[in-house]
Design goal:
mainly alpha; single chain; about 0% strand; disordered C terminus; 22 helices
């Protein structure tokens, strides 16, 4: 029979967290080794353009991994894609860790990126779909991003410790250690089942029933279990009733009954904007920013980089605990406002370089990271994974995450080149500042609140009036009333 109830969900969360550590590890491990003599020697002392290519190839390959999921995501289960993604990452890590030229390293990072695209597209969906309690779903997906931040922090501290070594192990060991996290992810997720929503969507009703009985720890005829199944099947039925398939024009103005294109568009913009705020520029070049642009000593810069990633991880995990205390829109708008303030001050300080302004700029960067950690870092993933209709969930979320990688690629590749140009320099940060500010009105006007709703009930937020009187819609509305009463009851002292 295997695990029962929340134990299944907890295993999914642990496996998902381990998978996201590999994502964070890559960002952290590269940022801490780029300037080491051992890495520079092995790569033939690459210039800033080659360094940008090494860093950004992973991001472009991650985009490719997301596109593969968007096209073929329903050919295998969520769990199977996660396992395949880890295997691909292991192959890429072996190639990278044994590199003696930047060409080989770039080739290895292509494999790592494709595997990462599989993981970042499928893990949040898998974790969200395994949550039978709505008050657990946001925390679960949020925990994935917190794990990525923890991976970044761990990698930076390993890099910091390795600078005292004097061999090629300075950079090869941290790069190779990514295999450990991939193997752990496979070991944890392998015994776990796939998600019930995937099983029902593929027509495996018997297997779906058996899994729901395990998740709810009850018979399929029990009211709660039966209602859970009815909600999933009602959602599938509504999507079948939506006769308008995805059309290009709907991504600009969606008039379809389930507004699938609008939901995908919202997720893509939201996640894309998050990665135009400067987070990848900061964490891929953290040590370089402190050392070259702020003017700190190499050892101090390395220590501060590790501390900054630790602040991000701590802020992320704080957000996991408080995730369901506030609405998604409150987290996002409040975060964007705080980030705009701190980045504006940071940019102004960089325009007047000096020891005192450099120290103050570093402090503002820490404040920005502390705000981003529990807000735009994780909540965009939570929201994008929630709003997608079941039929297009793999497609919509994969496309949303793909925008992250495209925007991150642009940032990581072009950012250092722009900053190194004397005519541009510190003005590069104005670009990021603009997106921090524009995020506020976008969330306010374009993102309905989803907190407290099941994945099926979220369909009601986007559904057109033409479907209101269908049996499937009435099923979801009835469940919505029950949940609201339950929430009210639980909040009564």
């Amino acid at each position: 029979m295997g695990l029962q109830g929340e134990k299944i969900y907890n295993v999914a969360r642990i496996a998902g967290s381990l998978g996201f550590i590999t994502f964070g590890w890559d960002a952290g491990v590269l940022g801490g080794i780029l300037l080491t003599p051992e890495f520079q020697t092995a790569m033939g002392f690459p210039d800033v353009t080659i360094i940008s290519m090494i860093a950004s190839t992973f991001l472009l390959a991650s985009w490719l991994g997301c596109i593969i999921i968007a096209a073929f995501g329903m050919m295998m289960g969520r769990r199977s894609w996660i396992i395949v993604g880890n295997v691909v990452q292991i192959v890429g890590t072996i190639i990278s860790a044994t590199s003696f030229s930047y060409g080989q390293l770039i080739a290895g990072r292509v494999f790592i990126g494709i595997g990462n695209g599989f993981l970042t597209s499928m893990i949040p969906i898998y974790v969200a779909e395994m949550a039978v309690r709505t008050n657990k779903r946001g925390q679960g997906v949020n925990a994935m991003i917190a794990a990525a931040s923890a991976g970044t922090a761990l990698a930076y501290w390993v890099d910091f410790g390795m600078v005292f070594a004097k061999s090629q192990a300075v950079w090869r060991f941290p790069v190779a250690f990514q295999i450990f996290w991939s193997l752990c992810t496979i070991a944890v997720i392998y015994p776990n089942p796939d998600s019930p929503r995937y099983l029902y969507a593929k027509g495996f009703d018997t297997e779906g029933d058996a899994l729901l009985e395990r998740l709810y720890v009850g018979a399929i005829t029990d009211d709660e279990v039966k209602q859970g199944k009815m909600d999933i099947l009602a959602s599938i039925e509504l999507e079948k009733a939506d006769t308008a398939r995805l059309r290009i024009k709907d991504f600009f103005w969606d008039t379809s009954e389930m507004q699938a294109a609008r939901r995908i568009r919202t997720g893509m913009i939201l996640v894309g904007v998050a990665y135009l705020m400067g987070i990848d520029m900061i964490f891929y070049y953290m040590t370089t920013i402190f050392e070259v642009y702020i003017g700190l000593a190499p050892l101090v810069a390395g220590g501060l980089a590790g501390a900054a990633t630790t602040v991000l991880a701590t802020a992320n995990y704080t957000g996991v605990y408080f995730m369901e205390r506030l609405g998604r829109k409150v987290w996002l708008m409040g975060g964007a406002a705080g980030q705009t303030l701190f980045l504006a001050i940071f940019t102004g300080l960089l325009s007047s370089p000096g020891p005192q302004t450099g120290a103050a700029a570093a402090a503002m960067l820490f404040c920005w990271i502390a705000v981003f950690g529990p807000t735009w870092g994780p909540v965009t993933y939570v929201y994008a994974s929630e709003i997608m209709p079941l039929r297009y969930r793999h497609l919509g979320f994969a496309l949303s995450v793909s925008t992250q990688w495209i925007m991150a690629f642009i940032t990581v590749f072009a950012g250092p080149i722009a900053i190194a140009n004397p005519a541009v320099g510190w003005k590069t940060w104005i670009w990021f500042l603009v997106f921090n500010f524009l995020a506020i009105p976008f969330v306010y006007f374009c993102c309905p609140e989803t907190r407290g709703s099941s994945l099926e009930e979220i369909d009601l937020l986007f559904m057109s009036g033409a479907l209101n009187d269908t049996a499937a819609a009435r099923t979801l509305k009835h469940e919505n009333i029950i949940n609201e009463k339950s929430i009210e009851g639980s909040e009564t002292p």
